[in-house]
Amino acid sequence: MTLRIADTFTAALDRLTAPEKAAAKQAAFDLQVDPSAPGLQLHRVERSRDRDFWTARVTRDLRIVLHKRSGDTLLAWVGHHDAAYAWAERRRLETHPATGAAQLVEVREFVEEIRVAVPAPAASPPLFARAPEATLLLCGVPPDWLADVRAATDETLLDLADHLPAEALEALINLSAGIQPAAPAPTPDPFEHPDAQRRFRLLADSDELARALEAPWERWTIWLHPAQRSFADKDFAGPARVTGSAGTGKTIVALHRALRLARADPAARLLLTTWSERLADGLRAKLRLLAAPPNLRVSDLRSAALAEHERLLGPVRVATALDVAAALATAAEGASVDPAFLRDEWRLVVDARAVRDAATYRDMPRHGRRVRLTGDRRDALWTVFARARAALAARGLKTYAEALHDTAAALAAEAAPPYDHILVDEAQDLTLAELRFLRAAVSREINGLFFAGDIGQRIFRPAFAWAAEGVEIRGRSRALKVNYRTSRQIRRRADLLLPPRLLELDGAEEDRAGVQSVFDGPAPEIRAFPTEDAESAFVADWLAALVADGIRPEEIAVLVRSIDEFPRAERAIADAALDAARLVGSATASAGRVALATMHAAKGLEYRAVAVMACDAAVLPAARRLAAATDETALAETYATERHLLYVAGTRARERLLISGKSPTSTFLTDLLAP
């Protein structure tokens, strides 16, 4: 017997209570061991249009819906007796006539009314009224649903989400954003079609069944939508980038692109890298599911870069921010200079751009620095910077940027750089030094560098022109427009924090218009409270309600601006009778605990529900960052990155989002409350 599991089964399983889930999982294992076991009490669903639907008994009132045909068995759905039979009576498993993919299709005649069939008088015009039927069929739309699709508007398209196969809805959202469906590659087995592989998983043994039942949220990381696959499979003559708002699948594209390159050339050396060790661990976990070959290395960028420094130049001791501040302060004794300006000038100009002598500093353009400096003033400042650098060197210290610049120079002198392909996730926060290192560390021009990122999530680095560093991506940048992770309600609310278009210093533009989510959810809650205690009490009740609704603690996160706000969040978690897992340093989440993290540490992570607490006026934007801004440009950059930070925090949520603070709250919350 061939056993498969459908994503509809894992979604239905996730809605059961804990005891019901345990019983359903045991029944699934029993079915795999002996599909004819008497205890399963198999019954054909007589009223179904598809005569191959059966039910298997789990408990007195719980049933698994199976599809059995020619020795193939599919775990299709699970639920209470009447609901299970009703679900099976309304479905059929068929091969789509245009795409050739296996699909679970809802029988149109059973649906009495669909709101999208009659748009409201004030609604926008139908999205697909003029789309050729052949195009809609290539999207995977079942033929008997074509009329309903043609009637759908931008406001009502997601009303079809419960009726259309998921891959058809995603293809329609792509079509609404101007992305045409690709012609299907012929596959003899309908379950081998890429669309079907994203919905149905072949289970070779009990271990695979256990993984499928325990980690249903990971199923979307396995297979790409055809629109995403075009990004993963395309060859580029130079550096390339995929962009898109949070949840559009940029990381998944990077993963599959890395796999494609690694498998195509087993002798090639590949690096898949990202900004933190925690995110690198997440990439490794996903690659284990995808059976990555051994020539694909995963590492956080800092570790990869410093390893190359050690190989070429020897070990390095990296100076901390406190080391640098102390060296600058000592070097500036007796000089008339603002300490904050001095630190920014070092960080943004001298250290960032590897300025090593007075002549270079005197002539260097200072992009983004509004304070004009005369030649004499630059000479005086350089004396301070030279003393500070010498003091650090005397202690055997290098800044991280200095280590990367030195490594890049050493790599440029090598005949064979260490990697043939480098792929970077969360690339929006690359520093100039990191970009120079990456450019020097890759040997190939074709498919050599690939970046996945979202300018809207840039929370660390100041802007700089990539093209000036030999990384020209214009003409090789593509944008994803379908959000698979975040509900439409959360996405729309979070988008209020950002402009529809974001520009880079070199003119590269990211157009955020036209992004669509593939599912609906509850509206985000934006709350202000008179006291911290009132906020903690409300968040505690909110967390407890989530758990009562069946959301596991490890699927929940509470995020705050900094560690200073941890006590407020911990009170709320404790008052909800839950335990917190602090994501600090290299610590990771653990089962049965609510994740507690700063907004920065949550970058790249995701949860079913997120509470963003302590968004007070004095906390967000951070008062200390505003005070440290030395000119108008620095102040504007601070406001922008703090706004991006709240966007990152809010878009970690898939289904439920709460953003709260003590009055007066952050001005950013006013933007979120806009109609």
Question: What does it look like?
Answer:
The protein is an alpha/beta fold. The chain contains 24 helices and 26 strands. The strands form seven sheets. Strands 2-3-4-5-1-8 form a six-stranded mixed beta sheet, sandwiched between helices. It has a six-stranded parallel beta sheet with strand order 11-10-14-15-9-16, sandwiched between helices. The longest helix has 20 residues, at 375-394. It is globular. 43% of the residues are buried.
Keywords:
alpha/beta; about 20% strand; 24 helices; six-stranded parallel β-sheet
Q: Any idea what the radius of gyration is? A: 27 Å
Approximately what portion of the residues adopt beta-strand conformation? 15-25%
- Please estimate the helix content: 25-40%
- Shape verdict: globular
Number of strands: 26
What distance lies between the first and last C-alpha atoms, to the nearest angstrom?
A: 55 Å
Quick description:
This protein is of the alpha/beta class and 675 residues long.
